[in-house]
Amino acid sequence: MDVQEVLRGVKPLLGQVVPVRTVQETRPREEFEDAYAVEVNVKNASKVIKVLDNAFPRDPSRPLNHLRRFAKHTQIPDELRPVLIKGEPSTQTIFTLITPPLPDADTLRELLAPFAPPSDSSQSSETQPSQDTTGTIHLHTIRIPTQPPLNIAQAEKWSKTMWPVVFNPATPRATIAPPPHALSCVHESLKPKAGRYLALARIVAAEAEKSGVGRGVGAVVVDPELEATIDATDDARWADAIVAVAGDIRYARREGGAVSEAERHQGTGPNPNAQAYNPDVEGGPELHALMHAVDLVASARRKQAGGEMNQSIPLTPLEEFFLTQSDAPVHQSAEESDNLSPVPRKYQKTETEAYPMPTDTDSTRVPRLRSREQGGYLCTDLDVYMTHEPCLCCSMGLLLSRFRAVIFPRQGRMVAGGIASEPVISPVPVEEAEEASAPTSDPPEQEEAPSSEASRPYYGLHWRKELNWRAMGFEFVEDEITEKSAEEGVAFHA
Amino acid sequence: MPTNLSDMAQDDNKHIYFMKQALLMGEKALEVGETPVGCVLVYRGQIVGSGMNDTNKSMNGTRHAEFIAIDEMLRAYPRSLLRSTDLYVTVEPCVMCASALRQYQIRAVYFGCSNERFGGTGSILSLHSDTSIDPPYPVYGGLFGKQAIMLLRRFYIQENEKAPKPRPKKHRELNTKFDDET
Lengths: 494, 182
Hints:
The structure holds two protein chains of two kinds.
Chain A: H1 3-8, E1 15-19, H2 23-26, E2 32-41, H3 45-55, E3 70-71, H4 81-84, E4 93-98, H5 105-112, E5 139-145, H6 152-161, H7 180-190, H8 194-210, E6 218-222, H9 224-228, E7 242-247, H10 261-264, H11 289-304, H12 317-326, H13 334-340, H14 345-354, E8 383-386, H15 392-400, E9 405-409, H16 428-437, E10 472-478
Parallel strand pairs in A: 8-9, 9-10
Antiparallel strand pairs in A: 1-10, 2-4, 2-5, 3-4, 6-7, 6-8
Chain B: H1 5-31, E1 38-43, E2 46-52, H2 55-58, H3 65-76, E3 85-91, H4 95-103, E4 108-113, E5 139-141, H5 145-156
InterPro entries (chain A): Cytidine_deaminase-like (IPR016193)
GO molecular function (chain A): catalytic activity
Organism (chain A): Aspergillus avenaceus
């Protein structure tokens, strides 16, 4: 196989890249906690804030700015009025909110005592019978929403029933989704070449399938930082930022001393096992395309560090090509390349002739994969393009490998996938366009999945606030769909 | 169903023995500077695979103890035997491993302490029992949980020379107390 010819012949998929929303966006979870509402003298409002903020500094990681710090009597939700307001509403006092984590009640009472409401408007003794003296501070426990409202309706509902809430559409919802700016930066950076990388991933997948070593699943790993240094107009260098490609190899492992499934089915053509899902011959997730790619990156790193590659399963020409590029010079001068090419001899002729020569001659021999000294670590800040939605195991594997982003065609969604966060509903391009033009519009409340939809869980594992590591997820929506979605095919782990 | 008490006691001894072997693997990991998580795979009362975290040495963040143990087992046995194999692991399997174990159709998982940051069998997600194309597996937590936690504490008190900016931890003291003395 002439790798250069393959690279030249890659026809980009046409379509658009759309972010995969987080599960907290698609199924907003409401969270509530206890807080105190405390009546204070309206004249002392600013002092109260100062005293409170000094004594209990606010935790910046818990944005509670959607909750008003004060509520006038008229703003108190109807449900709380009987508890908070005794007698006629007054303009002499105001209620301040003490948010969680709640401080010690006695400390708080002591702190706020100087600002207690005048005795005539203070509470009757019903709530705190033993402490009915002038200037007593009463702490009323109420429930508050700890997450910012996602739309106006929610803000209004909470304001009417719990506590006055402000809706700010611009609030970066850092706790439930990637910061909008960061997301759009990554999104923009992926757009120009996603179709091409995905097309290559499909070629890698076809190689894996044809050879019988695995299912038709492929992965392409790209260093976006390296990509930024490549002259975008130089079409011959489009693949220069790829640090690894890998196909599925689930049938290639020998187990218990026996021949592998791939060896059992000699000859060309897809492995017959691929026609159904039989867990006993599937091989494990460490043989899936993504894990294989992670393993190739790791072995290149070990080699950089002076270790061994120890590849037990033979690589395809494409895998071999990019693996050797990863610890080899990206930039070679024509004179050097003859004797210094790290490309195995059997490919060497092709490479030295066809691999595009750099125009900048001063560049030294830099491996594509950044070394440890250059900040290279695991798969930090790399992007992975997949033909299919990775399985749950691989989805978590990509987080543990610290990838920046994962991109797969929507056609490659899998019933056992770990990234999608909601069913595909209407004709998607239209819907996406609307959403893009009206980012502040309210998401439909409690969207019901159409009953015809195959039931599968939606984990949205790429970005979950519960997990320590996160990546951005994108689907590639092709303009023209000619085959049925992988979700309707054999259910297996990609 | 009548339960034979001596059988139960024997069962307990078995669990204790295998979890201790897993803890020993965790000790080994600690000695070589890996996150101290260890595990063993048990088929018909025999250890057929053992593993410890290997992410630093392999430079691969997915090389968790479970995968290492499965690798070892599969050198001698076909994967179909995992259906009759139990895993003893010092820390609750992470989301990745929880899914892998399900794909491998493990028979049962016994773990020491739970994993509040990445746990995939109850702490963060419940991949052992969620809807999936593979059958669910039972999990039993809390066996030598404190010993598993102490291994982790001993690890995290060390300075990480491999970190870009090692944080001095000279003055840290090993915490040997537990909030919930049960």
